[in-house]
Amino acid sequence: MWPVVAVTTRQEVVAVFSAREPDDIGRFFRGLTEYAFHARLGIVDPPLVNYVALLLVRFLRSDGGARLTGVARHEAVDVTHKLMTVRLHAEADAAREEYRHIGDATLFWSGLYPEALRPRVLSGLDDALVGYREAGKQAYWLASTLEREDAAEERLLLERLSREYDLCVEGLTEVRRAWGEAA
């Protein structure tokens, strides 16, 4: 039997979703992300919130965090190296996508599972978590600089992700809290 999850606010049931339907998972995370950003943080930026919601669905559905081995989980020190070497080994379009993925992966892990990054910090690499997040910001900025001229909206979104990275981390932390409350 597939689990059914009710997403609730303190006053009412918002929706009921079944893990059986793939579209329901996307709606669940979009709703949860909107709730976390809008209701809990007061952030109303639909393109940014939609991007973060889709990031969640991509990473949770396909383990997108494992695509680049140096980006996922606790390998915080390797992210900076990955960031520096992407451009050397890729054409502009491929580099843009790799930079975007580095930004997405660091945002995902920093916001939803920061405890997975803490072992590096506790083992004497005090700047590892800060460096990991800075690498994510830089990756989004680099991706924005490689965006095609005819994709101004996408370029602006990537620039906002770079500037508002810490806010997005806070938003994902709120998504995790709300997800826990909904379970």
Give the class from helix and strand content and strand pairing: mainly alpha
Order of helices and strands: EEHHHHHHHH
Strand content: 5-15%
Number of strands: 2
Described by the principal axes of the CA atoms, the overall outline is globular
Biggest sheet record: 2 strands, antiparallel
Mean pLDDT: 78
**Rg for CA atoms:** 17 Å
Topology overview:
Blueprint: E1 4-8, E2 13-18, H1 22-40, H2 46-62, H3 76-86, H4 92-112, H5 118-122, H6 128-145, H7 152-163, H8 165-182
Antiparallel strand pairs: 1-2
Helix pairs in contact: 1-2, 1-8, 3-4, 3-6, 4-6, 4-8, 6-7
Main traits of this protein?
183 residues; mainly alpha; two-stranded antiparallel sheet; 66% helix; 6% strand; globular; disordered N terminus
Could you please describe the fold and organization of this structure?
With 183 residues, the protein is mainly alpha-helical. It has one domain. The chain is 66% helix and 6% strand. The chain contains 8 helices and 2 strands, in the order E-E-H-H-H-H-H-H-H-H. The chain has a two-stranded antiparallel ribbon with strand order 1-2. The protein starts with a strand and ends with a helix. The N terminus is likely disordered.
